[in-house]
Design a protein that fits this description.
Number of strands: 9
Radius of gyration: 16 Å
Strand order of the largest sheet: 1-2-3-7-6-5-4
Number of helices: 3
Helix content: 10-25%
Number of domains: 1
Shape: globular
Structural class: alpha+beta
Order of helices and strands: EHHEEEEHEEEE
CATH architecture: 2-Layer Sandwich
Distance between the termini: 19 Å
Length: 175
């Protein structure tokens, strides 16, 4: 596993740009990554996820509320792992209005109830909201939600398929 980068921000929308800047700096350390569409999609989706955590987990605001973002790449497998952790309200995805319950698979992850996001139908274009989970499902290979009141975690994983683009092996493209 590469070095773990961990950032904790106050659960306020104005700090989501700090998460974006930190993630951007992390991803730019991966040769060739900044030139890919995946780079921009990852920045967008993680920003959206942080925004949704702040809006929904802390819907009434909690004094001292924070969001922690952990980021690492497994150098053996090329898997990017991003975890968001909050101390706010949890929810049962199978009872939520959106996405439909068929979008989730309930399972156990390290002795804790978890929900795996399988796929999300494209939201109605006229809806003003409800796109965050759709984009997460499109960009990441795996998305897990581990609800626990006061300790929610979103774990997002993306296989970064390394392909040597030059004989020197210094140029790397990511899928």
């Amino acid at each position: 596993m590469s070095e773990l980068v961990e950032l904790t921000i106050p659960a306020k929308h104005r700090y989501t740009e700090v998460v974006r800047a930190c993630l951007q700096a992390f991803l730019e350390q991966i040769p060739g990554m900044a030139e890919t569409d995946t780079f921009h999609f990852l920045l967008f989706v993680v920003h959206e996820a942080c925004t949704n955590v702040i809006q929904h987990a802390y819907d009434k605001g909690l004094k001292g509320a924070t969001v922690t973002v952990k980021t690492a790449v497994d150098e053996q497998t090329g898997q990017l792992v991003i975890e968001l952790r909050d101390g706010g309200h949890s929810f049962d995805p199978l009872l939520a209005d959106w996405p439909p319950p068929s979008s989730w698979q309930k399972e156990t992850h390290n002795h804790q109830i978890a929900y795996r996001l399988l796929s999300v139908p494209e939201p109605d274009p006229l809806w003003e909201t409800s796109r965050g989970l759709y984009f997460m499902a499109q960009v990441f290979d795996e998305v897990l939600y581990l609800p626990e009141e006061g300790n929610n975690r979103w774990i997002m994983m993306k296989e970064l398929d390394l392909v040597a683009a030059s004989e020197s092996g210094k140029t790397i493209l990511w899928s």
